[in-house]
Write a structure and sequence with these properties.
It contains five helices and seven strands. With 222 residues, the chain is α+β, with helices and mostly antiparallel strands.
């Protein structure tokens, strides 16, 4: 999911508010945001930050992997943690705020989100085997996708969502998101089920984008 620069400050505040309000009983806000008790924190760095990261190319629309359901992750090891950090690096390099594993050619159920676009270290969220367990309200807003560069459309998403997911170490957590964070959760979890934002657009808008992409492909520009 591409960045929305005009909302970066609000996004940072949203992440902080969500992580504090959804901290499990007995856990401090610092624990949820990568403090001393980082074991179960989805906001904590998955691997040492100074390790050189691999930048994956973003898979574009038309690749079958983007429209396939992903495999549930059952192995939680250092390799998974490294992949999560590589996904963050790839997402930042592509100026995104969310990235799902299929977008780098991996058919596994993991996504990363940072609606602060790297401006707030506490904004990093890793979602392994995520599911939306609650949604409320709705908001229609323009949306894009790193796998469909240059195209945007208005999509109705919940204003608030709560997700249940696992960390890279396999611990389960729940996190509530609002506005852009909620939208990013929905967008990335859609990816993990082979659903693209195009499928939320009107048939006319969707077909128009597909025809333009087909033309770009013929011209060797896609």
């Amino acid at each position: 999911m591409p960045t929305k620069s005009h909302n970066s400050k609000a996004a940072a505040e949203t992440v902080a508010a969500s992580s504090v309000s959804d901290a499990p009983s007995g856990k401090s806000a610092a624990a949820m945001e990568g403090g001393a008790e980082t074991g179960a924190s989805p906001l904590a760095s998955a691997a040492p930050p100074l390790v050189p990261r691999k930048i994956y190319p973003i898979v574009k629309y038309g690749d079958p992997i983007l429209e396939k359901n992903t495999a549930v992750i059952t192995k939680f090891d250092a390799e998974l943690a490294e992949l999560a950090e590589d996904m963050f690096a790839s997402m930042y390099a592509a100026a995104g705020v969310g990235l799902a594993a299929p977008q780098i050619g991996k058919g596994i159920r993991m996504a990363v989100v940072d609606v602060t676009a790297g401006k707030n270290p506490e904004g990093k969220i890793v979602l392994v085997n995520p599911e939306i367990i609650h949604a409320e309200g709705e908001k229609r807003e323009e949306e894009g996708c790193l796998s469909i560069p240059g195209f945007r459309g208005y999509v109705v998403r919940p204003l608030f969502v709560t997700v249940r997911a696992q960390t890279v170490t396999g611990e389960t957590f729940e996190l509530r998101g609002e506005d852009l964070l909620a939208r990013a959760f929905c967008h990335e979890i859609d990816h993990l089920h082979g659903v693209l934002f195009l499928q939320h657009l009107s048939m006319i808008k969707r077909d128009l984008i597909r025809r333009k992409i087909k033309k770009l492909r013929k011209q060797g520009e896609w």
